[in-house]
Amino acid sequence: xxxxxxxxxxxxxxxxxxxxxxxxxxxxxxxxxxxxxxxxxxxxxxxxxxxxxxxxxxxxxxxxxxxxxxxxxxxxxxxxxxxxxxxxxxxxxxxxxxxxxxxxxxxxxxxxxxxxxxxxxxxxxxxxxxxxxxxxxxxxxxxxxxxxxxxxxxxxxxxxxxxxxxxxxxxxxxxxxxxxxxxxxxxxxxxxxxxxxxxxxxxxxxxxxxxxxxxxxxxxxxxxxxxxxxxxxxxxxxxxxxxxxxxxxxxxxxxxxxxxxxxxxxxxxxxxxxxxxxxxxxxxxxxxxxxxxxxxxxxxxxxxxxxxxxxxxxxxxxxxxxxxxxxxxxxxxxxxxxxx
Amino acid sequence: xxxxxxxxxxxxxxxxxxxxxxxxxxxxxxxxxxxxxxxxxxxxxxxxxxxxxxxxxxxxxxxxxxxxxxxxxxxxxxxxxxxxxxxxxxxxxxxxxxxxxxxxxxxxxxxxxxxxxxxxxxxxxxxxxxxxxxxxxxxxxxxxxxxxxxxxxxxxxxxxxxxxxxxxxxxxxxxxxxxxxxxxxxxxxxxxxxxxxxxxxxxxxxxxxxxxxxxxxxxxxxxxxxxxxxxxxxxxxxxxxxxxxxxxxxxxxxxxxxxxxxxxxxxxxxxxxxxxxxxxxxxxxxxxxxxxxxxxxxxxxxxxxxxxxxxxxxxxxxxxxxxxxxxxxxxxxxxxxxxxxxxxxxxxxxxxxxx
Lengths: 340, 355
Known about the structure:
The complex is a heterodimer. By secondary structure, chain A is of the alpha+beta class.
C-alpha cells in the first residue's frame, strides 16, 4: 500500500514538473507575443456593423440610386481559403485633424488565394456618393460620419459588392510599418515634385509646407520617403489619380517584403503600428495573409483606377467633386468584385 | 534542505526553459537588412576587378572603386547626402550633388574628396517660402571637360503648383545655369538624365502623362528648346539612357507602362537618330542606372540581390555583342544609392594627393 502511494506520488510529482516546464514555455511564448496580443485586443478584431445592399437587379444608374434601400444583416465573411474582398483605408491623422478623420485613400482589394490573383481598385476620395449614414457627400467623408462601418457600408451599397474585411491605417502607422520591414524597393514611375507638401510629420509647424522631390526609377525608400511618394499630389497632372497609382505601387512593394515575414515578426510589427491601425481581422487571419501576399506574382495583379470616363469633374455644395458614371463603374467593378 | 535545493534547481530550469522558448521564437524572426546592417564598401572586395575607376554613392557618401579596391572619399557629412557623382574628363576631378531636405547643389571635388568649390546656390534662407529653393540633379560633363549638363527645377512660377525638371547646360569655368535646353511637360516631373551626344544634341529621359499613366520616353534634344526627337514609345516606357563609348548602342531601363514594380534592362542599336529593336538583357528585375565600361567591354547596373532588397552592382561582360555573358553580381550587402548611376572614368589609378 505504501509502495503504491509512493509510486503515485512520484507520478504526480513528474506530472507537476512536466506541467511546470510546459507552463514556463507557454509564459515565454506569451511574453514574446505580448505586443501582438495587446494589438489583437486593441487594434484587430473590430467587428463592423453594416447594412448590406439589396441584391443587384441591374447596373444602371437608377439601380445605384435604389441601392440605398438596406437590409440589415450580420456580416458574412468568406471562409478561409476562399476569395475575399478587403477595403483598405488610409487617413491623414496628424494633429491638424484633431480626431475628425477622412479617408484620403480607399482601395478595394480582391484576393483569390486559389488562383493567386489580386485586383486593386482605387476609389477616388472626391467621388460624390450617397453615404450609408444619410445624405450625399464625397466618399472620403463616410469614415468621418461613422468610422470604418460607415465606410464599408457606403462602398458596399454604392458599388453593389460585399466586403469581407477592412483595414485602416494612419500616417505614422504606414511609416512605421515600412520602416519595420526594412523599407520598400519601389519603381517610381516619374519624378514626384511638390513644393507644398504638408510638413505635419517633420516636427515643424503642422500647417507649414516642405519640398518633395522623389526621383524616378527603382529605389529603396524608408517609411517617410514612401509616405511622401504616396501622399504628394500637387505636382501631378493626374492629381488624386496619380496618387492612387502610387499607393498601389507601394502596396505591391510591400507585398515583396511579405515573403520575408513570418509569425515571429508580428510582435515587432504590432508594436510599430500600435494606435495607428485597426481592422476587423483577427491576428491569426492577418498572419494567414502573409503567405498569400508573398505567393502572388506581379503578372497576376490587376490595377484599376477610376479616372475618366469612369468619373468626371463637377461641382456640389460649393465643392469640386468627381461625379461617378455608375453605368461604367459597376460593370468594371463587377468583373473583379462579385455583385450582390 | 536537499529537497529545497531540488525545488530551486527545478524552478531555475523551468525559468531557463521559458526564456529559451522565448529566445527560440525570437530567433525565427527574419533578419531584414537595414541601412545599419549593410557593409561599408571599403570593408569588402568586389567579386571581379573592373577596368578604370568607378565612383558610386552609398548612404550619403561617395566611394571610388579602382583596381579592385574601394576608397571612401570621406565627403563632409554636414549639409545633406552626397549622390550622383560624375567624373570630369581629362582631369582627376568629379562633380557631385549634395542633397539637403529642401534643395540640392552641385559641387566640384577632387578625386580625394576635397571640395574644390560649390557650383550652385539653390538654398533659400526664408523658411516660409520653401518654394524659392531649387533642385539640381543628374550632372553629366561634356567631352570638353568644361560643359556641364544637368536637370534643374527652373523655370518655376510661384503661383503654380508645377515643379518640373528641365535640362540646362553651363560651364564649370563660367555660368552654371547658362542655357535652358528643354521645355518639360508640366506636372509630369519633367526631363532628367542628360548626356551629351558626340554629334551634338543631348540624350535624356522625358516624362509625360497620357491615358492616365505616367511614362518616360528616351529623347534627343538636337537644339535648345526645339522639338525633341523621341527614340522610344510611351508603351515601352523606357528611361535612364546610357550610350556605349562607340555611340552605337543604347542601354536603357524599361518599365513597360505597367507600374507593376518590375523593370527590364535592354540594349538597342542607335543609328541616325533611330533606335533598333531592343534586346532584353535582364527581365523582371529592379534594374537601374546602366553604365558602359569606358572600353566598351561590358556594362554595370544596379539590381537587388534578393527579396530583402538593397541594390548591388552587377556586371554583364560583352553586352555590346550578340551573346553577352550572364549577369554577375559584383558586390554583396552594400546597398548602393540606386538613384546615383555609377560614373566610370577610363583612368585606372588615381594619384594620391595631399588633402
